[in-house]
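S., here's the first fold you wanted:
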Amino acid sequence: MKSVSGLGKESRKQLTKVLRGTTGTISVAQAASILNLPSIKAAKLLWGWNEQGWVSRVMRGVYVPVPLNAESPDVSLEDPWIIAEKLFSPCYIGGWSAAEHWGLTEQIFRTVVVLTTRKPRNRSPKIKGTDFLLRTISPKAMFGLNPVWRGQVKVAVSDPARTIVDMLDNPQLGGGMRTVVDILRNYLKSETEDSARLIGYAKRLGNSAVFKRLGFLLESVAPEEAEAIKTCLLNMKTGKVKFDPDLQSERLVTRWKLWVPKNWKQAKK
C-alpha cells in the first residue's frame, strides 16, 4: 500500500493547476496541454505524483485524483460513469445500468454496462475495483441517448426505449431474458412507455431478432399493443433465432420464428 508523500513548491503548483483544469480523470495529453510541457515530461510528472500518492493510475496514461481525505492512494472509483465517458468515448451507459438509472428494475448490478464505438481488447475490464461490461456498436447506432450530468461531466445514457431495444438485441446486456421481461413489464407501466418509439428504434437498429423477441413478449404481457405486434410481424425476416442465446431452447414458436425454453411460462404457440 502506497503512502502519500510531500510535494515540492513547484510540483504542488503544477499539480494544483492540472487538477483545476481537469474533471474526473487526468490524461498525459491534458497535463501536457495545461502545463505547456512535452508529453514525455508530463507523463513523468504524472507517474511521479502516482508514486507519491497524489493521483492514482487507472490505465496507461490515465489517472484519477486521490481525494484529500483518502486513507490510501489505492482508491476506488468515485463515479464509474465518469470514468467510462473518459476512457471509452464515444460511448453511452446502457443495459441494466441504464435500467437502474430509469427506475425500471430494483435489482442491483455491480457491473457497469458501456456501449462504445471503440474495439477494446478486454471487454470485461476491472478498473479500481469496478467491473465494466463493454460492447462495441456502430457509430450509426449512437441514437436514443440522453445527457446526464455527473458533477461537471456530461455522460450519455440510453433513454428508456433504447435501453429496452438494446436488451432485446442482446439479452446479456439485461442479465438474460428473464430479467429483461421484468424490465419490459415495468417500462410498459411507466410514464415513459412509448411503443411507437420502441418500434422506431428497432427499425433503426436493423436487427430482425429484436422484432421477434419484442412481438412475442408483447403478445404475452401487453396484447392490447395490437398495432405494435402487427408491425413486429411485418418487420421479421425468415431466419430463426433463440429467445435467449444463453438458455437451452427446445421449443419453436413458429409465429415468431423463435426458439424458446420448453418451460417458458410466457411462451405461446
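And the second, which I think is the more interesting of the pair:
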Amino acid sequence: MKRLWLLFSQTVTVLLAAYFVVGTLKPDWLAGRVSRADAVALLVAPASSNSAAPAGSFRLAAQKSSAAVVSINTSKAAKNSPRSNDPWFNFFFGEQGNQPQVGLGSGVIVSASGYILTNNHVVENADEIEVILNDSRRARAKVIGTDPDSDLAVLKIELDRLPVIVLGDSDTLQVGDQVLAIGNPFGVGQTVTGGIVSALGRNQLGINTFENFIQTDAAINPGNSGGALVDTSGNLLGINTAIFSRSGGSMGIGFAIPVSTAKLVLDGIVKDGVVTRGWIGVEPNELSPELAETFGVNAKEGIIITGVLQNGPAAQAGIKPGDVVTSVAGKRVANVADLLSGVAALKPGTPSKFSLLRRDERVELAVTPSVRPKPRRPVQ
C-alpha cells in the first residue's frame, strides 16, 4: 500500500511539473482544441464596432454624425401642358405624359422631437416630402417653416428613437481645419467625403441674400444639399448648400451655411414661425478712395454709409452719411455683407453698440434696430 501511494505521488508530481513547463513555454497547447463549429464562428464573427480606429481615421466622427443625416425625396405635381389637348400637337409630338417632378436632397436631424434642417431649395414648392433615415426607416415630413434669404428650411417628422447630431461651434473654425461632408449625392446612398476648410466668410456669390459661407474642398455633389458638414469629432459645423462647378459635379469648391446661422433660423422658425432679423435703415457701400475723399473720411477699413433713411433706427441713433462703420455688436465688419449679416443678427428692440469713424474721430453709438421689412414683390 505504501508502495502504491509513493508511485501515485511521484506520478502527480511529474504531471504537475510537466504542466508548468508546458504552460510556460507553450501556453497555447493548454487552450484546448476548438471545435470546427467554434472555429467557423470565430472566422465569420464581425470585428467589434468599439475597436480602436487606425491612426488618421475619421471613423468615429463618421459613425457619430452619419446616423443623424437623412435623405430627402420630394415630388411636385405635374403641370398640364397648354397644348396637351391639341390633337395636332399630339399627332406630331406624341402625347406628353404629365409626370410628377421628383427631387433629391439631404437633411440633418437636430432635435429628438423630429426637427430637421435642410436647404430651402431642396423642399421649395414640394407637394410631398419623404425622409429616409440611415437605419432605413421612412416618414412623411411636414414643412415647419422656410427662410429663402438664407436658403434654409425646417422640417418635422413623427418618429421615436431619433438620432440627433451634436451642434458644433462654427465661429471657432480656421482655414485648414479638417472637415467631413455627409449626404446623399446623386441618390446613390449616404456618402462621407473628407477635406479641409478652404476659406471662411465667402459672400457676394449671388446665392442667398445673407451669405457667410464656409468654403471646403470636401466633395459635395447634387443630392448633398441640406447635408452635414462636421468636424473630426462629428459635431455639426454647417449645412452643405452649393458648389462651384462647370460640369455639374464636384470641382473642389463647395459652400456650407455656418451652424451659427442655422441655429438662428431654427430657433426663429420653431419659436415664432418666422425668422426675425434686425434692420437699421442705411445705404452701405464698400470703402473706396473716391468715396473717402468725397465724404472727407480718413479711414482705411470699414463700411461707409452713403445714405440714411429719415426717421429710421440709424438716423434716430445719430448715424450720418459719411460715417464709416467698423464693428457691430463687437464684431468687426470688413465688407457690406458683414454689415448686412451683423445687423440682421441683432435682436429688434434691443440696443446694440456700433463703432464708427466720423472724419478723424472715433464714435460709439447705441443703435436700436427694428424688424427687417419684407422685400416688396415687383408688380406684374
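Why I say that: The radius of gyration is 32 Å. Confidence is low (pLDDT under 50) at residues 31-48.

Talk tomorrow,
H.
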